[in-house]
Amino acid sequence: MHLRTEDLTRIEIEYDSxxxxxxxxxxxxxxxxxxxxxxxxxxxxxxxxRDEVSxxxxxxxxxxxxxxxxxxxxxxxxxxxxxxxxxAKSKWSNKKLDEEGGIKLLSKDSQGQIIRxxxxxxxxxxxxxxxxxxxxxxxxxxxxxxxxxxxxREKETAYxxxxxxxxxIRKMEVTVNGKVKEVDWxxxxxxxxxxxxxxxxxxxxxxxxxxxxxxxxxxxDGFWHDIQKGVFNIDDSFDAISRIQQGFRKFL
Length: 252
Hints:
The chain has five helices and 15 strands. The chain is of the alpha+beta class.
C-alpha cells in the first residue's frame, strides 16, 4: 500500500544482509525525515555475529574491530526528490523477509498514518541506501569523494580523465586534460556501476602512472590497471570492459 508521495514526512529503511556470513553480515537502519531545507537523517549500522570469527579473520578481510557506524544530522535536500520518486514507483509485498534478508520500510505521512511494508524492487532500494550512506560518509569526512582516473594513450593523442563522484550533493565532476565538463548524474552513475563489475588483477597493476600506449584505469586506490590486459569480465554474457571504455570516451 502506498501513502500519497507528496504527503510523506518520514521514511525508515531497515536492511538485513541475511545469510551472508561474518565479518560481512550486517544490519542498518536509515531514518529520514523531510524537513524544509534538509533531510533530518539518522544511520545506525551494526556488523553482526562477529563473535563467531577470529580477530585475524576480521582484519584479513579488510575490516577493523570497530566498523559499526552511527550518525545523526542533516543531509542536503537534493536527496529528497529521488527518494520520493523511488517511493512513488515502488510496488509492495505484505510478506516478511526470509533468510536471504533485504529491505523493509516504514513510511509516515502528514496525517500520522504509518505503513510498514517490503518493496518488491529490492535492488533499487539497496542501491539508493548505499548511495545515501556514502553521502553520510562524505559529509562526516569518514571517506573522501570517490575519484576515478582514466587515461587514453594513443599514437598522437593523450587524454587524462578524472571523474569525481560527490554523493553528498549528487554531482559528478569530470575533467578532461584539465578542462571541466558537465555530466548527467544518472548516466554517469551507470558508468560507475560498470567500473566495479570486472575482476582487477592487482598482480599486473602498477602504482606509477603509465606512460605507454593503451587505456588505463585507477579506481581510487592508487593502482593503475591496463584495461585490456589486467581487467577481466566476470560474466561472459556481459562485456563490462567495453562499457567502461565507451563511457569514458563519451567525455572526450
